[in-house]
Design a protein that fits this description.
Radius of gyration: 22 Å
Number of strands: 10
Shape: elongated
Helix content: 55-70%
Number of domains: 2
Low-confidence stretches: 1-5
Largest sheet: 4 strands, antiparallel
Structural class: alpha+beta
Distance between the termini: 43 Å
Number of helices: 8
Order of helices and strands: EEHEEEHEEHEHHEEHHH
Strand order of the largest sheet: 1-2-4-3
Length: 281
């Protein structure tokens, strides 16, 4: 998070997951109570939020609607546009409306918000099954890599092992944050689907650590890879490193689209990279 001089603007990195739509809305409204009104955003998933300071403005209420999720929601978006509701920001996936008060927002959009939250909710049983399967495969892969670390290029194997462990540890920071908020009652279940109405400070801290680790993994991995490439004495090592990062990029991008901004992509990347390495052996 960064803040410009004279307290006029605030730039905030948004790490809210796709199923935390109500929690993200609450965060934006809390900023409004401090005099910061949402005045823009950047990124497909509202990755960067921009707030403008207006001390004399009254706190505002906001509604974030997800496009192409449901015909009824899309129709409501078009009706609101035609009715000249104030649009703070929109892109191909999201549109953010600003209201004079929370009461007006709830009266107008109560049903639509509930439906959207249910559609964006995480299927509890399916998600736990998928995460458990990926996590077990990841741990098995790491154990096999430790046992076979001297089989092949030692430097490449050490780089791979470090990357796999970093991805798993980073995933755990996010997962423990979600688990904590479910235990303390921040997670709401509707029709066996889970979404979060708000965030605890503990979860927010863990998610921030996860963001830092993700950046560290990317930056550290690139630097170490470059060093290994410069020191590579055979073509196989270079091909392995290029192949690993190609797999990382492809799986990371496609899973990000599939899971609409979800940290489960960290486990998916780890499993695919593990599979890629064993195919080369």
């Amino acid at each position: 998070m960064g803040e410009e001089k004279h307290n006029k603007k605030k730039i905030v990195y948004n790490n809210y997951q796709f199923y935390e739509n109500p929690a993200l809305t609450e965060f934006i409204e809390k900023q409004a109570t401090k005099g910061y009104s949402l005045c823009g955003a950047m990124g497909k998933f509202l990755n960067i939020l921009k707030f403008c300071y207006a001390k004399d403005e009254l706190p505002k209420s906001y509604t974030i609607l997800h496009k192409h999720l449901d015909e009824e929601i899309d129709k409501k978006i078009e009706d609101m546009k035609a009715s000249n509701y104030k649009i703070v920001y929109q892109n191909n996936l999201y549109i953010v409306f600003q209201h004079a008060s929370r009461e007006d927002s709830e009266m107008e959009l109560g049903k639509i918000k509930t439906k959207q939250n249910t559609l964006l909710g995480v299927p509890i049983k399916k998600s736990l099954a998928l995460i458990s399967a990926l996590f077990v495969i990841s741990i098995i892969g790491v154990i096999l890599n430790i046992l076979l670390i001297h089989d092949g290029n030692l430097h490449f194997n050490l780089l791979s092992l470090g990357l796999y462990l970093a991805l798993i540890i980073t995933f755990l920071f996010y997962f423990i944050g979600d688990l904590h908020d479910i235990i303390v009652g921040k997670g709401t279940s509707i029709d066996d689907k889970l979404y979060f109405s708000s965030r605890t400070k503990f979860k927010d801290i863990l998610f921030r650590i996860g963001d830092i680790l993700k950046f560290g993994i990317l930056l550290g991995g690139i630097l170490v890879s470059v060093m290994l490439l410069l020191d590579a004495k055979d073509e196989v090592s270079a091909i392995n490193i290029f192949g690993m990062w190609l797999t990382y990029g492809i799986v990371g991008y496609t899973s990000r689209l599939k899971y609409q901004r979800s940290y489960i992509s960290l486990l998916l990347i780890e499993v695919f990279l593990n599979s890629f390495q064993f195919l080369l052996k």
